[in-house]
Design goal:
The structure is a homodimer.
Chain A lengths: L9 H21 L5 H12 L3 E2 H8 L3 H13 L3 E7 L2 E6 L1 H24 L5 H12 L3
Antiparallel strand pairs in A: 1-3, 2-3
Helix pairs in contact in A: 1-5, 2-5, 3-4
Chain A binds a DNA duplex through helix 1 and helix 4.
DNA sequence: TATTGTTATACTCTATAACTATA
DNA sequence: TATAGTTATAGAGTATAACAATA
């Protein structure tokens, strides 16, 4: 019988669970022609009109060098508009098309999250999210 | 004030936490010249002498196409030996050098896991791992 | 000086397809 | 037919370095 020496490590379980989650969500979002990072940025902009690119990056944990091509692509697709804030930054807002797609993406994500939630016994759910947040949030 | 619309989603928190965990562990393992997948395979072999490559892949959730180069690299570095099992498979065993490195890798991983664990309030830890396991384990 | 945004580039993990050899 | 292993390739996320323009 094989024994997994990593099995009881929280970091290992974290990675396996995260990969399992992504393996479900990614194909769902690709039906909307969105990658996960793109969808996250899009719904973040919808929820925060005129937010700056740098602020989204900080909020979602995406480095500025990686934000640039994401925002550029969403812009090219006509999903958002850039409103000049000052000489070096723009406020981002979703267009009407962008809002429709953001809403669809949010639906997809909510369905996915519900599926995940249902896998966890109800009395564990609150503790689960709280513990996760302890890990990735600034102390 | 910006608001993160994904903040209370378990899948989102999972990904953020997993990324934060990896950002800590990866540089530690690279001091041993090991990538995470390599280290995982190495300690899995140490814990299960003469395990087959396909069994490790199933245990760790690594596709066979991705196992091949990992095992080949560990073999080239003299960290493991392949013992013929039948015509198409070999049992894998760590060499003396491989065992030393596997032990070091395990130490690094345990330090990392302890750091992670300490971020979580003690009364949440058991539930946390149980919930994670619900997500990635076969029903 | 610090920040915003950008480009280029590299690395790691994951996924798929196609193939050989063996059970 | 199914399994073990391999090769090649592509996609996605993340990371660093360097730079221009602006605060």
């Amino acid at each position: 019988m094989v024994s997994d020496p990593l099995r009881n490590f929280p970091g290992y379980a974290l990675r396996r669970a995260s990969n399992a989650s992504l393996a479900d969500l990614t194909p769902q979002l690709s039906k909307l022609n969105l990658r996960l990072a793109e969808a996250s940025v899009l719904v973040a902009i919808e929820a925060n009109p005129e937010i700056k690119q740098s602020e989204i990056g900080r909020m979602l944990g995406i480095a500025s060098a990686n934000m640039a091509p994401i925002v550029a692509k969403l812009d090219e697709r006509g999903l958002l508009e850039r409103i000049k804030a000052d000489g070096r930054s723009h406020g981002l807002k979703v267009t009407a098309t962008g809002k429709r797609l953001a809403d669809l993406a949010m639906e997809v994500m909510q369905e996915h999250e519900q599926m995940l939630t249902e896998r966890i016994p109800e009395d564990m759910r609150e503790t689960f999210i709280a513990a996760l947040t302890c890990i990735w949030t600034e102390t």
